[in-house]
Amino acid sequence: MNIKILVVAHKQCEIPKDDVYLPIQVGKVLHPDLNLGYQPDNDGENISEKNPYYSELTAIYWAWKNLKADYIGLVHYRRYLGMKHGKDKWQCLLTKEEAQALCKEHDIILPQKRRYYIESLWSHYEHTHDISHLEKTKAIIAKDYPEYLPAFNEVMKRTWGHMFNMFIMKKSYADEYCAWLFDILFKVEKQIDFSSLSAFDARLFGRISELLLDVWIETKGYSHKEIKMIQMGNENWPQKIKYFLAAKFFGKKYTQSR
To answer: Domain DUF4422 spans what residues (predicted)?
Structure first.
């Protein structure tokens, strides 16, 4: 069983030594002089030039079109999947053997749910970003993929979701997911005026896709297994909560990643 888990990076970083991991440099075509020694996302058929808008999705697109593997996955240089607990986080990351065992039993591997408690996924997006982007997405799904609309409506009402575009799944499933996802996102893209957006706000497609993964999985009826999401370094939870509450109660939209 050949499994490849992309590690998305835009700068030099520590990479797990297990060969199940494949580091990929995103936005490579926009930075031709920056050579990290990782797989570039502008090799073969690609959308590397869209990285300022699509974030880690340029890596997913590259894998869809170019990577030969039985299973593919995606993690970030600061966020990984794992099953073990311990002080040394690098020793807790998912190994090839663990990934193979999981994939024999489950269609899709996902990180544990991200919970927002007092916000639905829709209202959280509305309070932190431009809700018209999500409204355009819903309209396209209703028109072109109406069978996905019930799951979309249900997922948007929830206070939790499988976030960060992290997963491991059969390559055939990933091909199916990407064909659906990118068709929707490319149609949304045609309706967006990027000249009015900041660099932070322009990264909207990575955010929309986070919300669409559960919509696709539930409509297809595929089984999934949740495992730990391991954050490398420390998250500033007091600050995250502060900005989360400011967005909900005082209308202060996010201006940088939280």
So the answer is: 4-220
Crossing angle for the helix pair 121-128 and 131-144, to the nearest 10 degrees: 130
- Find out whether 246 and 124 touch, Cβ atoms under 8 Å: no
Question: Is 145 in contact with 184 (CB distance < 8 Å)?
Answer: yes
CB within 8 Å of 83: residues ≥ 6 apart: 92, 94, 98, 227, 228
Please choose, from the candidates 187, 189, 169, 188, the residue with its C-alpha nearest in 3D space to the C-alpha of residue 177. Answer: 169
- Residues 55, 222, 97, CA angle at the centre, nearest 5°? 75
* H or E stretch covering 161: strand 160-161
Q: What is the pLDDT of residues 144-163, one digit of tens each?
A: 999 999 999 999 999 999 99
Place of tokens 């491991």: 168
**Whether 83 contacts 106, CB under 8 Å:** no
Q: What is the DSSP letter of 257?
A: -
Residue carrying the six token digits 């609309």: 149
> What is the chain's percent helix, strand, coil content, to nearest 5?
45, 15, 35
> In whole angstroms, what separates CA 38 from the centre of its chain?
19
Q: Are 184 and 57 in contact (CB under 8 A)?
A: no
Predicted pLDDT at 244: 64
d(CA 206, CA 55): 6
- Going by DSSP bridges, is the β-strand pair 39-40/21-25 parallel, antiparallel, or unpaired? parallel
More confident residue, 119 or 235: 119
Structure token digits, residue 241: 């909560």
Tell me whether strands 21-25 and 224-231 are parallel, antiparallel or unpaired: unpaired
The amino acid at 21: Y
